[in-house]
Amino acid sequence: MPLPTPAWTAVIPLRAGSKGLPFKNIRLLAGKPLYRHAVDQALQAGAQRVVITTDMPEVLTADLPAQVTLVERPPELAGDAVPMAPVLQHALRAAGCRGTVVLLQATSPLRRRIDIESALAVFAGGLFELVMSVTSADRGVLKWGTLQGNRFQPLSDPAHCFANRQSLPPVVRPNGALYVLSAERFVASGSFVSEHIGMVEMPAERSQDIDSLDDFERCEAALEAAHGD
Fold it and tell me: Which residues of 39-77 are buried (b: 16+ CB within 10 A; e: fewer)?
């Protein structure tokens, strides 16, 4: 019997600045602003609350569902070089979040309800401090290494560097679509880093991230095709 899913809060970060595609978070995608896809996905998956952290006036003054809490992001956390960890920590504190939190990136609109529910189920098992979505990647990266002066330092098992690519173990990469974590732990640590990270795998077609106009148009075509089925 599956474990019951605890009450949870979705957090959606939205920043005004974007070099690849300006104002992408509020650009209309398949009939509604990009960020509203994440809001709707969260509510459809059962979020009791949705927290949006943003510096965008268009979002801060928008007519949104009653379950949505808006957190105005301070300028020092709105730059393009600011990592996600302090942004999330600020949002959790400002909104008084407790318990299970699902971080949803608005730029992953092809994520589905089942992806969120699967990640929550893994987190509810209690074995992991963080659960994140991943997708299949080229196993050839196991042959790679870092430079330390003129010394080659393998990224993994040195034997992988000389193995046939087909014989290497499968590899996945984070796709950035979602992360599940404990609000209390994250507020205390301010870091995603953990030795206990679980995962849920998403197919490549649902793992697309919007960074450019080409990405946007590709995701829009995929959504429109899905709605037409």
Answer: bebbbebebebbbbbbbbeebeebebeeebbbbebeeeb
Burial 146-184 (b: 16+ CB within 10 A, else e): eeeeeeeeeeeeeebeeeeeeebeeeeebbbbbbbbbbe
144 domain residue, yes or no: no
Residue 28, burial from CB neighbour count under 10 angstroms (0-12, 13-18, 19+): exposed
Query: Does the residue 70 lie in any domain?
Result: yes
Please report whether residue 145 resides in a domain: no
Q: Judging by DSSP bridges, how do beta strands 171-182 and 130-137 pair with one another?
A: antiparallel
CATH code of 82's domain: 3.90.550.10
Q: How many domains does the chain have?
A: 1
| Domain range enclosing 200 | 8-139+172-228
Instruction: List, for residues 123-157, the tens digit of each pLDDT value.
Output: 999 999 999 999 999 999 999 999 999 999 999 99
First and final CA of the chain: distance in angstroms?
Answer: 33
Per the prediction, the chain carries an average pLDDT of: 93
- CA torsion sign, 109 to 172 to 215 to 77? positive
pTM over 0.85: yes
Structure tokens at 67: 């379950």
Considering the domain boundaries, does residue 123 fall inside one?
A: yes
